[in-house]
Amino acid sequence: MDSTTSTHAYRLSPATRAYRPHRVVVLALDGLLPFELGIPHRIFGRAKDAEGRRLYEVVTCSIRPPGPVETDGDFAVLVENGPQALATADTVVVPASYELGPVFEEGVLTDELAAALAHIRPGTRLVSICTGGYVLAAAGYLDGRPAAMHWAEAEHFQERFPQIRVDADVLFVDDGDVLTSAGVAAGIDLCLHLVRRDHGAGVANEVARRTVVPPHRDGGQAQYIHRPVPEPQLATTTAARAWALARLHEPIQLRDMADQESMSVRTFTRRFREEVGVSPGQWLTQQRVERARHLLESSDLSIDQVARDSGFGTAQSMRQHLQAALGVTPTAYRRTFRSLAHRS
């Protein structure tokens, strides 16, 4: 499975079964970060099928009647929809805010925010970016669930909501109908993940290309946490990763990768985890799963050949890895997303 997600059963949204723009409603709260507010609009808004039809409809609402919403900058944004728009959502996204007040300090919703969230229909997919997770937590949506949070707020978040299994290492957590991400740019990773989950790697990769971001970032938050006494970065594992990516179809040993950097296996493994956030073995599996997804969607190769070309060796091995990562077999994945690509 992706190191950036928690284990979940792979679910296909209604948008994967028939063409209908999936309605995403973004909740703008006072003190919002404009960058995070724009992430859902940019990622979901750029997802299209081959005929140019938008796969998502994205609208913004506030917890009050239409009007200005303050940002963390020296300007406000004019939001044209009130909280009633939440009742129309297939997915609700809650970006971060620096003015959460009692939600942040005490873990409780204000009456105004509670009334707004009451518009959300049961079964609606819920997504938070960074401290937007405090809103979902205070509303009880994360009780007993795993959740991601920015590493700088993770301890505070866990103290406020001890019933939540907080993970400060990953970029995002997919728990099926509720998804949470770490800070700021991790919202991009999460939104791309949702596009990939809904419509396959091909559509998500195209959105990523147009946005000029990687379709999938390696590792988790560990690589971004400031260390009081950082080790000199005189050596990296970049060359080894590039070497491995060009040879995913071949057997690759840890010793082979370490040799590319002239490091001992122990030093290479430590450096790799510091830079990428996961072990070399986990990273290789991630890359092979992504290669397999791409080939299943874009080629007519047999399942056995896809397994060989992606480095799994046998169809059985690939089936086990895709089942663990996506909760679906290679045949089912191809049937769903290749048919979507042709229908699109």
TrEMBL record:
Molecular function GO labels: DNA-binding transcription factor activity; sequence-specific DNA binding
Organism: Streptomyces sp. R21
PANTHER family, per the entry: ARAC-FAMILY TRANSCRIPTIONAL REGULATOR, HTH-TYPE TRANSCRIPTIONAL REGULATOR RV1931C
Superkingdom to which the source organism belongs: Bacteria
UniProt entry keywords in alphabetical sequence: Transcription, Transcription regulation
PROSITE patterns (UniProt xref): HTH_ARAC_FAMILY_2
Pfam families per record: DJ-1_PfpI, HTH_18
Chain ranges of the HTH araC/xylS-type domain: 238-336
UniProt cross-references to InterPro entries, sorted A to Z: Class_I_gatase-like (IPR029062), DJ-1/PfpI (IPR002818), Homeodomain-like_sf (IPR009057), HTH_AraC (IPR018060), INH-QAR (IPR052158)
Descriptive protein name: GlxA family transcriptional regulator
